[in-house]
Amino acid sequence: xxxxxxxxxxxxxxxxxxxxxxxxxxxxxxxxxxxxxxxxxxxxxxxxxxxxxxxxxxxxxxxxxxxxxxxxxxxxxxxxxxxxxxxxxxxxxxxxxxxxxxxxxxxxxxxxxxxxxxxxxxxxxxxxxxxxxxxxxxxxxxxxxxxxxxxxxxxxxxxxxxxxxxxxxxxxxxxxxxxxxxxxxxxxxxxxxxxxxxxxxxxxxxxxxxxxxxxxxxxxxxxxxxxxxxxxxxxxxxxxxxxxxxxxxxxxxxxxxxxxxxxxxxxxxxxxxxxxxxxxxxxxxxxxxxxxxxxxxxxxxxxxxxxxxxxxxxxxxxxxxxxxxxxxxxxxxxxxxxxxxxxxxxxxxxxxxxxxxxxxxxxxxxxxxxxxxxxxxxxxxxxxxxxxxxxxxxxxxxxxxxxxxxxxxxxxxxxxxxxxxxxxxxxxxxxxxxxxxxxxxxxxxxxxxxxxxxxxxxxxxxxxxxxxxxxxxxxxxxxxxxxxxxxxxxxxxxxxxxxxxxxxxxxxxxxxxxxxxxxxxxxxxxxxxxxxxxxxxxxxxxxxxxxxxxxxxxxxxxxxxxxxxxxxxxxxxxxxxxxxxxxxxxxxxxxxxxxxxxxxxxxxxxxxxxxxxxxxxxxxxxxxxxxxxxxxxxxxxxxxxxxxxxxxxxxxxxxxxxxxxxxxxxxxxxxxxxxxxxxxxxxxxxxxxxxxxxxxxxxxxxxxxxxxxxxxxxxxxxxxxxxxxxxxxxxxxxx
Length: 735
What we know:
Elements: H1 11-22, H2 25-28, H3 30-38, H4 42-66, H5 73-81, H6 83-113, H7 120-137, H8 139-164, H9 180-191, H10 211-240, H11 243-248, H12 252-260, H13 262-288, H14 290-297, H15 316-332, H16 335-362, H17 379-393, H18 397-418, H19 427-448, E1 455-461, H20 466-482, E2 486-494, H21 501-506, H22 510-525, E3 530-537, H23 540-550, E4 555-559, H24 567-570, H25 573-580, E5 584-589, E6 598-602, H26 610-623, E7 626-633, H27 639-655, E8 660-666, H28 670-678, E9 683-687, H29 692-698, H30 701-708, E10 712-717, H31 725-734
Helix pairs in contact: 1-8, 1-10, 1-13, 3-9, 4-9, 4-10, 4-16, 4-17, 5-6, 5-16, 6-7, 6-13, 6-14, 6-15, 6-16, 6-18, 7-13, 7-15, 8-10, 8-13, 9-17, 10-12, 12-13, 16-17, 16-18, 16-19, 19-26, 19-27, 20-22, 20-26, 23-25, 28-30
């Protein structure tokens, strides 16, 4: 029987861990730096940061009640946005919390050195080692220690506020907005990391008693209390300390205490600072170590990180790894600079947290049933996302570069280690897939229901045989009849440049006579208005494109031909026409078409081209046949993906006027599978996938399939509603 974590963290422990995780470097180190950026408005910066953190706090509280599992942020983003973004969030948050913990220890040492002459880094390393050992002994001991630390720390801070407020000097608040909105937002981004711990308790949600009640209350209660405390402390610091002294000091709170509370107050502040910074580091180790633990449990990190100690009941390897990273950071890395980078990434992670809630609520996630729901959804989440990116815009380029580096490293880790080990997708993927499917169905419906007279142009040459002309006309009339339209069949004759077109047009060749003699009875055979004639030109391909434009054709039917040897370099005439034609183009590969009992429609990836459905429905309806929709899926497709695709195919079926067979083909080789299935049908309707470069270098799968099947094939090159590169990428990725 596998070992499980014990739920022994109550509400007070939850609040204590959250407050302890927040109150630390944010209030003891950053006010001086932020004062340089925003002036006295640093007070407002702390308040604004607390407000902008609120959406993420509400989102995380909601998801924590739905999924009280160890891992917190990583779990929510992984389940909501998919394993790739989950890996980015997990790695980034793990480093961010480790950086903040290391910064708290190094930042607390100057407060210790105010009384004792000790070296900074050795003291910080010793404190880090002790906290790692405490965390190895168990969460219960950690929670009790956190409560004791927070109680002493808060008593000192309340004394600081109560004793300092009467001593504030209003002149120190002069020029409150002199730094402008830019300075205020930059300072808000800088101090944003002060609230990072507000959602930290969610990372140990699996160890919280009664998580439905304690997690939301703990998160929201600790955020409100800490925001008020931060603002009041900064009001006192700014109001009692000369600005120059405050902005240049490594111990700004001590200088404020000296001005208001004398030596007893200074001693209290030192004790509070040391305890606060230790509690921040302690909470950092506690929560950040759960990220590799949770990622390993989801096969995104080595499985050895999931091992739980037999006696202590804690994830020993995950804690040890996190502690080692923190020790290395303290010893070798300029922590303050990297902590700023962690702050920027924390903003991005909070934006992903807000996005994850939207993904869960909008996605097809049956098991998502939170007992607490974020109010004012989705506006709360949208404000949180927009506010976060607004702050990043004012934080400079270095934090952005750091976030890009962490993101790139996480992506590489996922690609080379995790991708082949997981077969999951986030709720957001299904949201996008369903949106793409709905749009494709709406496009198909609008085209299928458009009955305002299709004009179909059939372009042939003197080399076109009677049998092929009949097949082209049959297809064209079926499409036109379905939409109350008409057909124009034109034989395009090309003469040398030396021959005047006037002279050529007045001379009827034997081929022209034969064309008219064989076409005249066809116009009587098909009960659709058919016009026919010949056009002489010096350049057939341009003449076809120009005539299609002149006639305002909806469809252009051409014979499909084999590519000449020079095609990879210079292209082909048909390829040129499909690019330049002003309408949809159908390329017909005729192979003794007789009866039409079954029309097979295939797609490579993404939704079906609406014109494929339109053409297939017209042909099958006129012949009394049926349609088979073939959709390929990888063997590793998720059950949610299969259900969504099946629902999409069902909606397409409802648009057709003939019987439809829906078939999802699970295969890693769609080409071979399509050839095998399609040979049982009479007509294959397929697209013209791939651009010219791809076709030249690798060939086109659609061409290879047509060359391999025995039935008549129609390639559809759609112009109306053609998707751009980005849309095609999204469709191929999520569908």
